[in-house]
Amino acid sequence: MFNLTRTIISRQSSRMLSTFETLKVSTPKAFVAHVELNRPDRLNALNYTLWHEIGQCFDELNASEDVRSIVLTGAGKHFTAGIDLMDMLQVGQKLAGVTDVSRKAKIMEELIVHHQNSISSLERCVKPVIAATHSAVVGAGVDIVSTADIRYCTKDCWFSIKEVDIGMAADVGTLQRFPKAIGSQSLVRELCFTGRKFKSDEALRWGFVTRVFDTKEELVEASLKLAEEIASKSPVAVQGTKKNLVYSLDHTNQEGLDHIMEINRMNLQSEDFVNAVMAGQSKGEAAVFSKL
Ligand SMILES: CC/C=C\C=C\CC(=O)SCCNC(=O)CCNC(=O)[C@H](O)C(C)(C)COP(=O)(O)OP(=O)(O)OC[C@H]1O[C@@H](n2cnc3c(N)ncnc32)[C@H](O)[C@@H]1OP(=O)(O)O
After folding, report:
1. Would the CB of 227 count as within 6 Å of ligand 1?
2. DSSP letter string over 56-96?
């Protein structure tokens, strides 16, 4: 009963996205959301508010029947400079006031789980997320874009799994998701152990990004065009596809097949299936899918 009430409330409120302090959210095309990291004066470094708002924003976009695909960009000079190091100094001060190691560890556990959940919201969101990055994508930035479904970037874009240079192991998803996007364990380990910058040309060669653009304007335009195309498809089909692709990343083939069977034994009875097939046969008439 509680869950049902919560679901109904979230559906009702899905039309009104929150306004955020560190994110700019717009709907430039039908069913397409554009989320912009918006702390340009701090190079979009992730302070606690930005971590928190990313999670809240993608959970809201997931619930919204008006959103079918999402483009993620960064405002200003860089996509992001990673975690806000000033914010981390404040965490250090908080820890200094606590003497017991287990109690210090509990504070850190809550922080790490909060930040992990923030980034995982891009994966929990069943609407495809296109990360469109420019200039620096550092540390937590790689965690974020590794969680996106599709990555485009500008020619001047570079990435660094920088955590090793600040004395920590990446802990909000890069070590889990980046290797699955790249394939070569040797390359992954080289980049994670050294933090060395890799540029757009290398990222393209390895398949980490799939398109590179001369300017940010071209990048955003192409990303929105792709998002618009995805949004024109059946939301039942696209969201079922994302759920199964995410699930299949860490399950056996048979488990993945069982999972998609569970999804499709329902979805093949949906009006979207009939509408799409009819539109396909009418040659030229695009199918129109109702809100999901
Ligand atoms: C629980 C833990 C979860 C997640 C952990 C994630 C770990 C990480 O994200 S590791 C990565 C941390 N980030 C960095 O180490 C990046 C440091 N910054 C840089 O290397 C450079 O600033 C740059 C991103 C390459 C950009 O260079 P440039 O364009 O030349 O700008 P700057 O002049 O260097 O910087 C301008 C201004 O921004 C401040 N700043 C830069 N990065 C951060 C940051 N990460 N946090 C806070 N502030 C940052 C920099 O100090 C300058 O400040 P001024 O006040 O203007 O001097």
Report:
1. no
2. HHHHHHHH-TT-SEEEEEE-SS-SB--B-HHHHHHHHHHHH
149-177 per-position pLDDT tens digit = 999 999 999 999 999 999 999 999 999 99
The domain segmentation of the chain, as residue ranges, is 2-232, 235-282
**Nearest by Cα to 77 from 21, 133, 11:** 133
Helix, strand or coil, per DSSP, at residue 182: helix
Q: Take residue 49 and report the two structure tokens written for it.
A: 């508010």
Q: Quick check: ipTM above 0.90?
A: yes
Say whether domain 2-232 belongs to CATH 3.40.50.2300: no
Ligand 1 atom 51: the closest Cα is on which residue?
A: 42
Q: What's this model's pTM, rounded to 2 decimal places?
A: 0.94
Domain formed by 235-282, architecture: Orthogonal Bundle (1.10)
Q: Which two tokens stand for residue 190?
A: 């080289």
From atom 33 of ligand 1, which residue's Cα is the shortest distance away?
43
